[in-house]
Specification:
Structural class: mainly alpha
Helix content: 40-55%
Largest sheet: 2 strands, antiparallel
Number of helices: 5
Distance between the termini: 46 Å
Radius of gyration: 17 Å
Length: 165
């Protein structure tokens, strides 16, 4: 038996042996290090309380993200990325990963994560609409989206396009 999960960086579906559960592994697609969840049996699933509605404006998340990038840079890791709204020659291709992650998160009912991707896309609305149109017109095909039923995917893309108006 194997563990099936999505890479936290690129969102693609990854399979790992049960022995890798609870450890970190390298994604075969994006080569980033990601956590492999432990296999869970049905009797180990806990009932959780409903999540409280998030009333933050995102400032705290941005502060944490900036701190994380500063720590990575200090440790000799990758430097902080240039924010999308400060990139000079931003192209729709630069936003395809956000559109894919938005759709995958919506399909997996990870609405808070989808909202974060939407917030990033709203910073560069015009180019983001072009990126969504690339998927709507079939100019771009992403294998990771094959797990989402076509009509549902179409609905997510149309909804995202409306949000970017």
């Amino acid at each position: 038996m194997s563990i099936s999960f999505r890479c936290e960086h690129c969102g693609k579906k990854v399979e790992a042996p049960d022995s890798a559960g609870g450890k970190r592994g390298r994604c075969p697609y994006c080569k980033q290090s990601c956590y492999v969840p432990s296999p869970v049996s049905e009797d180990e699933i806990l009932e959780l309380a409903p999540e409280e509605e998030d009333r933050s404006d995102g400032a705290e998340e941005e502060k944490v993200r900036q701190h994380e990038w500063a720590l990575r840079a200090e440790m000799g890791g990758e430097a902080a990325p240039i924010p999308l709204d400060h990139k000079e020659d931003l192209k729709s291709e630069d936003l395809h990963h956000l559109v894919v992650n938005y759709c995958l998160d919506m399909a997996d009912s990870k609405l808070d994560r989808a909202k974060l991707h939407l917030a990033e896309l709203k910073k560069v609305r015009h180019t983001a609409r072009e990126a969504v149109d690339d998927f709507l017109t079939g100019k771009v095909l992403e294998p990771a989206l094959d797990t989402v039923p076509p009509k549902l995917l179409q609905g997510f893309l149309n909804q995202l396009r409306e949000e970017l108006k």
